[in-house]
Write a structure and sequence with these properties.
By secondary structure, the protein is of the alpha+beta class. It is built from 13 helices and 15 strands. Helix 6 runs antiparallel to helix 7 and helix 8 packs antiparallel against helix 9.
């Protein structure tokens, strides 16, 4: 058994490499951007690649091709094809009949404007991509919404909201007041002035408009991550005077905070979608009815998840054990390769 790993800084690959060294797993580093990558991977049984949003346009086609060859991949197609695409997420979740935040997507201006005549506000406007609450805005009036619709079907939107990124960095500095968060503000100004690499690989977002119903009364959301048959959870609190929780960094982990109904939903959804890794974000309607906001296969590595106090398994039993997402992924991956090889 031989594993290929595409290494990227600030990704799962750093701990995958360490795991292979410590457990004497035969692995090699590969570059999935190589023109000849298909032929190079023929000698391997599997590929581990924690790719980001700016790599989706070639990561998904490569995944499909490798699976056609019988090479196992993390993330596999079922896990990743909808990553960082809220429209794709809505469609696949609709097939699962799971309760979602009501979503309204339009592909022509007239349909959007006709809907506008009879809807109420506020609404949440989103682009189909973006993480940590970037590209997410609260639209309070029909007039604001009409401007958004006009822009969506004319000049469009940059794939990254540069000003929102700067605001997030300022928020983090106010919260933590460290040298690292101060450098984040400087980087935010750099992005505001010069942009980021993803703007070179993605065109403007246009030709559609995406709104979600605003669900009041939520001071936090719940992030549940399912890897294999394990589910661990984080409660993320909103920023001050903001409706958004993603990216706030205000977190709680105590198991008593999490309704087992949510754990059961997340585990069931992962099985329905046949995912290797699934992060689900929930809020509540009327303080008791869970609604799914969106899903993702990947997330940033580090203490945010390792601080979880344990995990549940699909029998809803609590395990007071260390949460190591990258280790869970590679252990499941190796087990699946061994099962395939008999």
């Amino acid at each position: 058994m031989k594993i290929a790993i595409h290494h990227r800084t600030n990704s799962f690959s750093e701990k995958w490499i360490r795991y292979c060294k410590e457990n004497h797993i035969d692995y090699s580093l590969v570059n999935c951007r190589d023109n000849n990558i298909i032929n190079k991977l023929r000698e391997f049984d599997g590929l581990l690649w924690h790719w980001g949003p700016d790599e989706a346009h070639y990561a998904v086609p490569l995944t499909i091709a490798l699976e056609k060859l019988g090479i196992k991949v993390f993330p596999d197609f079922n896990t990743c094809w909808h990553f960082d695409n809220k429209i794709a997420e809505k469609y696949i979740l609709d097939t699962c009949e799971i309760k979602q935040v009501p979503t309204y997507i339009f592909y022509d201006k007239n349909s959007a404007l006709n809907w506008l005549k009879n809807t109420s506000f506020p609404k949440v406007f989103k682009l189909k991509n973006g993480a940590s609450s970037t590209n997410v805005k609260l639209i309070k009036t029909k007039r604001q919404a009409k401007r958004i619709i006009n822009q969506a079907f004319s000049s469009g939107f940059l794939p990254i909201d540069r000003f929102s990124i700067l605001k997030n960095q300022i928020w983090k500095f106010k919260r933590d007041k460290t040298f690292r968060t101060f450098l984040g503000i400087i980087n935010g100004f750099r992005i505001l002035m010069f942009g980021v690499s993803i703007e070179n690989t993605k065109s403007k977002e246009k030709g559609y408009v995406y709104f979600q119903k605003f669900i009041p009364g939520n001071e936090f959301d719940t992030r549940l991550v399912v890897i294999g048959n394990r589910c661990f959870a984080i409660r993320r609190y909103n920023r001050k005077n903001d409706f958004r929780a993603s990216g706030s960094g205000i977190l709680k982990y105590e198991p008593r905070l999490f309704d087992k109904k949510l754990i059961e939903i997340a585990l069931r959804l992962s099985k329905q979608l046949e995912t290797q890794s699934l992060a689900c974000d929930f809020i509540f309607d009327n303080f008791s009815n869970p609604l799914l906001i969106e899903i993702s296969y990947g997330f940033l590595p580090g203490s945010m998840y390792e601080n979880c106090q344990g995990y549940w398994t699909d029998d809803l039993k609590w395990h007071d054990e260390k949460v190591l997402p990258e280790t869970f992924i590679i252990e499941d991956f190796i087990k699946s390769l061994m099962n395939d090889n008999g």
